[in-house]
Structures are given as structure tokens and as C-alpha cells.
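Researcher: We're teaching a course module on how sequence relates to structure. For the next exercise, students receive a sequence and then see the predicted structure as C-alpha cells, so they can try to spot secondary structure elements on their own. Here is the exercise chain.
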Amino acid sequence: MICSDQTRPRIEAAFDAAQNYETHARVQRRVAEALADRIAALPVVAARGDTLRLLEIGCGTGLLTRALQDRGIGGHWLVTDIAPRMVSRCATAMADHAAAPALTFAVLDGSAPPASLTPGSFDLICSSMAFQWFADLGPALARLADLLAPGGTLAFSTLLDGTFAEWEEAHRREGLDAGGLRYPSLHALSGLFPRGGNLSARELHARDAYAGAGDFLRALKRIGAATPRSDHRPLPPASLRRVMKAFDRMGAAATYRVALCNWTSPTAKDELSA
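Model: And here is the predicted structure for the students to work with:
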């Protein structure tokens, strides 16, 4: 479990309200670039060329979208996000991006694709830093895998256990719970994919420094990532101040632990259920 279904409306609202996202999304930009490099090297990208059928989940303001276009990836893309304003921001950004591929934009919940997206519709499904928001990642991966053509690839990045360890530790030192979403280990994540196919996964660690705890919290809010678990109660102001001081004493930095995954479907679809 990554987040609850009760958390989803708050996540959508948080991302809709995320102003100046890219100013504060330093790690997200680095991860998108690393993921784009992996995607550009995929055999399916070379094989399909300008006929590539691509679905992007959680496009945000278009960090991954633009990184893929910058690497010369063409084809027909369906670019989506759960937050309508993020879809609009991405569409605006890509309108100013020269030589874009054929693009369609849509509001879509990537964890539960609509029936209008039929099995085998895509050669590549990609997403950067969105899957950690899914309520139940295993079934979502199975649904997305079913949308791949034989030999198609699901390529994504997502957060792992140990992300924001410094903020969590600052809470522990005060005997408190940070209330953050829970993320899987890379080993646990690897066990969520459908049987069959081929998985390549690695970890990327990125440490981001802040002027202080207040700067850290503002940055999370401005990238729409400050939503706590649905069962978490906000700390009283005095408790939060103690945590913030502890975080500052530890160096006011936070580590992102990120999985970069490529899962390629079998060439025969019936192998998925073997």
C-alpha cells in the first residue's frame, strides 16, 4: 500500500495547486533526465521509430515529456495526469517546444486506466515520480502491463523506502511520527510486477539541501508533495517546531531514494498468466 483511496482527492488538489512547480522540482528534473536516458536506449524505441505508441502517466508540467522529445523520440503520444491543471501546464510547455511528436493530452487516473484504452494499445508506457501516489501499485502495474503490445515496455521511476530519512529521523528524535507515505524497498517493488516479461531496475539516490526545515516544507508544498497519510494528524505547532530544529541541526538536507525500472512484456501475451 502506497497511499489510500481517501488520500487521492487531496493528492489531485495538491498537484492542481502546485504553483512554480519546476522552480522547486530539482530532484524531479534530475530523475526525469535519468529516466529519459534509459527510455531512449530501449529496443522498442529504435524498432518502432515514428510509429511508437506512447502513454505517459503523471506528466506534471512536462519534465519527462520534454526530456523524451529532446532525445528525438517520436511517434504518437497520449500524455496524461490526474490533475487537470498539470495537463494544461504540460500542454502549454510542449506547445513552445519545437518539433514535438504527435501529442494528445488527457486527464486520466493512471492507476485505473479507462476501458477506452484497449489491451495492446501501446508500445511504451512511461512515468516519472508518479507511481508512489497509487493506492495499490501491484494491481495497477498489471493493468498497465495489459495495455502493452507484445514486447512493449513499461518504464518508470518511483520513490523507495528511505526517502526523506532525515525528516523521519528528526521526528523519531522527538518521539513523533512524520506521517509520510510509505514506500516499498526495491526488492518488494520488484515482486509486484506480473509474472513473465523482463525487469531491469536500479536505485538512484539524490540529496537535496535546503536553507532550513521551513524551506524544505515549502518546497514540498510547491511541488504538490506535502500530502500525508490519511490517518496522520498534524502535529501541534510546538511539536513541529522541535522537529524543524532537529532537522536543521542534522544539516537541513533530504535524500530521495528512487527506483528506475524497465519491464518488458513477453512477446506472447499468454505468457503473462503462465
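Model: If you want an answer key for the exercise: The first helix runs from residue 8 to 16. The beta strands are 53-57, 76-81, 102-107, 122-128, 148-159, 198-209, 253-264.
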